[in-house]
Amino acid sequence: MPLGLASLSTVLLSEGFDVKVFDTTMYKDDNEISNSQKARMCSLQVEFVDYTSVGVKPIDKDYMEDFNRVLAEYKPDLFGLLCVELTYLKGLRMLKSAKDFGIPTIVGGSFATFSPDEVISSNFVDMVCVGEGEIAIVELAKRMSEGKGISGIPNLLIKRSEIFDEEGDNIFTELSEKYGSVL
To answer: Residue 127 belongs to a domain with what CATH number?
Structure first.
């Protein structure tokens, strides 16, 4: 699991939120090593890693089928995507699916930090976290679970949309528990 994903999950869990992680790292792309790994190898960022040599097997299934099944079963109150530029296009498919399920979306990670205008311009993105996200995601989850407005959270850019009123405040009305689920 990527370190940033582990860190965000940990802070949410420590605050009592229900978190489900869907990590696409080990899913095969085109029945080979992932395209993002190929790109990182070509740019000399990483060397090839044969995960099978240490007992880790690639997942030979369509990640979107698995992702849609998780969304349908888990029914999160928020979908967060953590990505780098090389994984953003794959992430857009996931963001679109989350929006199709009516789930608000947030994007963070290095790509969102360095290209927030590009990320927030997507029809599938409601919020972008710029910079460190541990404090922002916890504050966002707390306010959403309490039905409070979300404007003014440091590091968080909020797109005006049907899920937020003109003040940028959260207008969710149905929260079944004090703490909603976060994917």
So the answer is: 3.40.50
Work out the average pLDDT over 138-143.
96
Distance of CA 104 to the CA centre of its chain: 11
Identity at 156, one-letter amino acid code: L
d(CA 100, CA 95): 9
Cα separation, 105 vs 122, whole angstroms: 11
What mean pLDDT comes out for the span 70-78?
Answer: 96
Q: How many domains are contained in the chain?
A: 1
* Whole-number pLDDT of residue 106: 97
pLDDT of the residue at 55: 85
Inform me whether the pLDDT recorded for 100 exceeds 90. Answer: yes
Share of the chain above pLDDT 70, in %: 76
| Contact (CB, 8 A) for 30 and 37 | no
Structural domain for 171, as ranges: 3-23+75-182
